[in-house]
């Protein structure tokens, strides 16, 4: 964690590291890994809420814990922008990080792949690889999605690529 800003370092030290190296094809070991994932997510969510900084809600969308869905949001100029969040756990997990998707933003920025998958290749994937299997879903949100949104959402709003829901409703009423 050398060279990291104090806030990121503080946040990261409060998210439990994972120990079970198992993916969706690993049966009982995957169940143990999912328990660790939930504990880390609960810790991260609780920490964010205690700082009045909650910015996402996710849950497993299937009993196997291989598909996740939820919402994430970003406040810019005192307006809350909310997006659907989804991702699948790759079969090669935890060696491969999940590809986080914001489908509503598909095609609105160059830092995104087809289907609304956010680009984490340059900055996050080497970090994930270095910390496998200790990193999990909570770490992907903290070190992948959060900084991506902080960098991209203000630009998308300021350029008019995304509109606040109240602005969209106002423009529809006047049409």
TrEMBL record:
<dbReference type="InterPro" id="IPR016135">
    <property type="entry name" value="UBQ-conjugating_enzyme/RWD"/>
</dbReference>
<comment type="function">
    <text>E2-like enzyme which forms an intermediate with UFM1 via a thioester linkage.</text>
</comment>
<comment type="similarity">
    <text>Belongs to the ubiquitin-conjugating enzyme family. UFC1 subfamily.</text>
</comment>
<feature type="active site" description="Glycyl thioester intermediate">
    <location>
        <position position="119"/>
    </location>
</feature>
<dbReference type="InterPro" id="IPR014806">
    <property type="entry name" value="Ufc1"/>
</dbReference>
<protein>
    <recommendedName>
        <fullName>Ubiquitin-fold modifier-conjugating enzyme 1</fullName>
    </recommendedName>
</protein>
<keyword id="KW-0833">Ubl conjugation pathway</keyword>
<dbReference type="Pfam" id="PF08694">
    <property type="entry name" value="UFC1"/>
</dbReference>
């Amino acid at each position: 964690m050398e060279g990291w800003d104090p806030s990121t370092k503080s946040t990261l030290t409060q998210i439990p590291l994972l120990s079970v190296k198992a993916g969706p094809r690993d049966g009982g070991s995957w169940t143990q890994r999912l328990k660790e994932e939930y504990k880390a997510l609960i810790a991260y969510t609780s920490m964010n809420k205690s700082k009045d900084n909650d910015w996402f809600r996710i849950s497993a969308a299937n009993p196997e814990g291989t598909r996740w869905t939820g919402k994430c949001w970003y406040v810019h100029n005192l307006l809350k922008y909310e997006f659907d969040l989804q991702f699948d756990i790759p079969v090669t997990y935890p060696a491969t990080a999940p590809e986080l998707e914001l489908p509503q933003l598909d095609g609105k920025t160059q830092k995104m792949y087809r289907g609304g998958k956010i680009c984490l290749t340059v900055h996050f994937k080497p970090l994930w690889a270095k910390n496998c299997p200790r990193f999990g879903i909570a770490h992907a949100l903290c070190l992948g999605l959060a900084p991506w949104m902080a960098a991209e959402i203000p630009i998308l709003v300021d350029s008019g690529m995304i509109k606040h829901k109240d602005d969209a409703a106002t423009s529809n009423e006047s049409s």
